[in-house]
Design brief:
CATH architecture: Beta Barrel
Mean pLDDT: 88
Number of domains: 1
Distance between the termini: 65 Å
CATH superfamily: Cyclophilin-like
Structural class: alpha+beta
Radius of gyration: 24 Å
């Protein structure tokens, strides 16, 4: 039979402490937990060569895609990635670190979260999820619309909309040819969720 005794547990920290006179002072109150502004949590800020672009995320339309964007942003995935395919009058596509249009993240592809045209449409400033012919193949790539494109309505997932800085999107370097592939493309310097940006930087 073992003669070991259980390890002693640390004494609990008293809630009150006595000062030099013996008077008991109450313990300092615990710091209140930080309150996250839901709007700031669902706002994406892209820093581009032409200035900031502020995007309202739409979890009400595409909760899985919004969660994916936030996950990748917080990993720093989009920092330095190019707008590799940019077509005048149509859209600017990015989110592929390889710049080839075939790359993505190491996370699984996402199921389609298409919205009916009655609920959301591809307008100027709308952000959609790029995909292959397979509706359930969106991963990290996205596109920002320069102009309305009704033929995309209900065919691609809408997950956000530019609310500030669309003039900076308009300045993104265009590609050439039918594919719109860009030589020496503009890049996202940094992507952050507004809730993560210190107040003195916001």
């Amino acid at each position: 039979m073992s003669d070991e005794t259980p390890a002693e547990t640390p004494a609990e920290i008293p809630a009150e402490t006595a000062d030099e006179t013996g008077a008991v002072a109450p313990a300092a109150p615990a710091a209140a937990p930080a309150v996250v502004d839901p709007k700031a949590e669902d706002t994406l800020v892209l820093e581009t060569p032409h200035g900031k672009v502020v995007i309202e995320l739409r979890p009400d339309l595409a909760p899985l895609h919004v969660e994916r964007i936030k996950t990748l942003v917080r990993r720093g995935f989009y920092d330095g990635t190019p707008f590799h395919r940019v077509i005048e009058g149509f859209m600017a596509q990015g989110g592929d670190p390889t710049g080839t249009g075939t790359g993505g993240s190491d996370l699984p592809d996402l199921p389609a979260e298409f919205s009916s045209p009655q609920k959301a449409r591809f307008q100027r400033g709308t952000l959609g999820a790029a995909r292959t012919n397979n509706p359930d193949s969106a991963n990290s790539q996205f596109f920002i619309m320069f102009a309305p494109s009704s033929h995309l309505d209900g065919q691609y997932t809408i997950w956000g909309k530019v609310t500030q800085g669309m003039e900076n999107v308009d300045k993104i370097k265009r590609g050439s040819g039918g594919s719109g592939m860009v030589q020496g493309p503009d890049r996202i310097a940094r992507a952050r969720i507004l809730a993560d940006i210190p107040a003195d930087e916001a």
